[in-house]
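Hey Z.,

So I finally got round to the FE2/S2 (inorganic) cluster thing we talked about over coffee. Here's the setup:
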Amino acid sequence: MAAEPTTRELRALVAGYEFDRGHLLPALIAIQERYGYVSRRAMEALARQLGTTPALVYGAVSFYADFRTEPPPRREIVWCSGPACRLRGGDRIREALQHTLGLPLDGQSADGACGFRLGQCNGTCSEAPQVWLDGEVVGGLTVAAAVALAREVMEDGAS
Ligand code: FES
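And the result:
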């Protein structure tokens, strides 16, 4: 797992962002794109840069589900909770994934090997029921295929 960025690195990344110019979200996106998550240290560095409080920055981070406050897992399955996927058996897929991974939705294994997150429809419903594996669509899932996928992710994430 990559080391947490230093305060110096974080300050360099957010230098130039200004609160009065609506830069809170762009700065958070830049931090997450660079490091994969927004650490407490990053929130503090950004608050200092913007001249606001870490609590306000944390409020924004916690409001938007796409922001992470912990390093991302090595492998990740995102389950689509949209209507087309659920009409085509998405709930059974979720149950199979949760059972096989041993993780709740939005859970992550303690060793950081794999994670399981709730996702929203992104308009690729012709692939329903689907998940995203490390950002790539895996569609037309059956329960058996979901179990196989979860096992693969656990094995890959552990190596
Ligand atoms: S409902 Fe799952 S991709 Fe649209």
